[in-house]
UniProtKB/TrEMBL annotation:
The chain crosses the membrane at residues 6-30, 42-61, 81-103, 124-144, 164-190, 222-243, 255-276. It is found in: Membrane. Its main location: membrane. Keywords: G-protein coupled receptor, Membrane, Receptor, Transducer, Transmembrane, Transmembrane helix. This is Neuromedin-K receptor-like. Belongs to the G-protein coupled receptor 1 family. One of its GO terms (molecular function) is G protein-coupled receptor activity. It is a multi-pass membrane protein. It comes from Actinia tenebrosa (Australian red waratah sea anemone). It comes from the Eukaryota. Residues 21-274 form the G-protein coupled receptors family 1 profile domain. One of its GO terms (cellular component) is membrane. The keyword Membrane applies.
């Protein structure tokens, strides 16, 4: 069997499982009132971002097998359907959401008295909307300058943006959506882990305080594991896509292909992380699936 076809079949199977898992997360928070919290709403937005990316993977594969005539229609397809643009927008929204999540957890656990910085159920929607707005603005040039082109008998979605000011755009995106989030998230979770695990050497005296500490630790583990998984899976494909966009003629297509698999594996991992680390999510999943 042709390797490309085998890869496409594997990708479709992967997408099907990941879509089902992330839909389960969204449905669980929607149907189960005990899961409705600011933290879980943010985690649902990460799951929704994964769903957006997953739904566009089969469309992206058409680049490999379908040849379009260069023109307005093909350019529009590249801008909005068969390129990495929308999955990248969704990924940036997920990154912003993970930053908001880490900052929210930081103020909830490390600075509990500063309630002005805490998200509430009626305000978390504005934080989520802001994440998508920032992601959309950051990737807007890709939609404006994206086009379809046949280069050396290869059908490619390219971005003319990189002919105009490649280094400026890449440096800005890398700074605001890689460096700043990484530093912010690292700082917040370092402080959170120190607060929850190391600051109070003497354990709580009463059962209620012990349970509260245990719940905090579980939530920290879940949030941190989701974040670490995303970073490990997202950064390699980001680098590969940027390199491809700069020089599509000499881009290593295998590098993009295999890092893309790693990227979509993150979407597959998340539902299992929720089920494994959160008793509430596990109970909700069982109830929905009637297990």
């Amino acid at each position: 069997m042709d390797k490309s076809l085998l890869f496409s079949i594997f990708a479709c199977v992967l997408v099907s499982i990941a879509v089902a898992g992330n839909l389960l997360i969204v449905i669980a928070v929607w149907k189960k009132r005990f899961l409705r919290s600011t933290t879980n709403y943010l985690l649902v937005n990460v799951a929704f971002s994964d769903l957006v990316s997953l739904c566009f993977l089969p469309l992206m594969l058409t680049q490999r097998y379908v040849k379009f005539n260069e023109g307005v229609v093909a350019d529009m397809l590249c801008k909005f359907l068969i390129s990495f643009n929308i999955p990248l927008t969704a990924s940036f929204a997920a990154i912003c959401t993970l930053v908001v999540l880490s900052v929210e957890r930081y103020h909830a656990i490390v600075k509990p008295m500063k309630t002005g910085f805490r998200l509430r159920e009626d305000t978390v929607k504005y934080a989520i909307g802001s994440c998508w707005l920032c992601a959309g603005l950051a990737t807007l040039p890709l939609y404006i300058y994206g086009k379809y082109s046949n280069i050396d008998q290869r059908n490619l979605c390219i971005t003319n943006l990189f002919d105009l000011f490649p280094l400026i755009y890449i440096l800005h995106v890398s700074f605001f959506f890689v460096a700043v989030p990484f530093i912010t998230i690292s700082f917040c979770y370092f402080k959170i882990v120190h607060e929850v695990y190391f600051k109070n050497k003497v354990g709580p005296k009463n059962l209620a305080a012990q349970q509260e500490t245990l719940n905090k630790r579980k939530l920290v583990k879940l949030s941190l594991s989701i974040t670490i998984t995303f970073v490990i899976c997202f950064f390699p494909v980001t680098i590969a896509v940027i390199l491809k966009s700069i020089d599509p003629r000499h881009a290593n297509r295998s590098l993009v292909k295999y890092t893309s698999v790693l990227y979509f594996l993150e979407s597959l991992c998340n539902p299992f992380l929720y089920a494994y680390q959160s008793t509430n999510f596990r109970q909700a999943f069982k109830a929905i699936l009637k297990l």
